[in-house]
Amino acid sequence: MRKYLSIAFALLLLVAAAPLLGACHTTAGAGEDLSAAGHAMTNSADRHTP
Fold it and tell me: Which DSSP string do the residues of the chain spell out, in sequence order?
């Protein structure tokens, strides 16, 4: 009985972790977009500084 419980728990853990691991690419893409926007603002400020 304990063996089946540990297998069920492991499967539940894998199923629960799948969406979190899939979201890594989305989060990384959003971070890159925010970084690019920050660099654009910095470059614009540097160009318009007297």
Answer: -HHHHHHHHHHHHHHHHHHHHHHHHHHHHHHHHHHHHHHHHHHHHHHT--
Burial 17-50 (b: 16+ CB within 10 A, else e): eeeeeeeeeeeeeeeeeeeeeeeeeeeeeeeeee
| Residue 8 structure tokens | 């069920």
pTM: 0.48
Q: pLDDT digit of tens for each residue in the chain (50 aa)?
A: 888 898 998 999 888 887 776 666 777 777 888 898 999 999 888 888 87
44: its two tokens = 């614009």
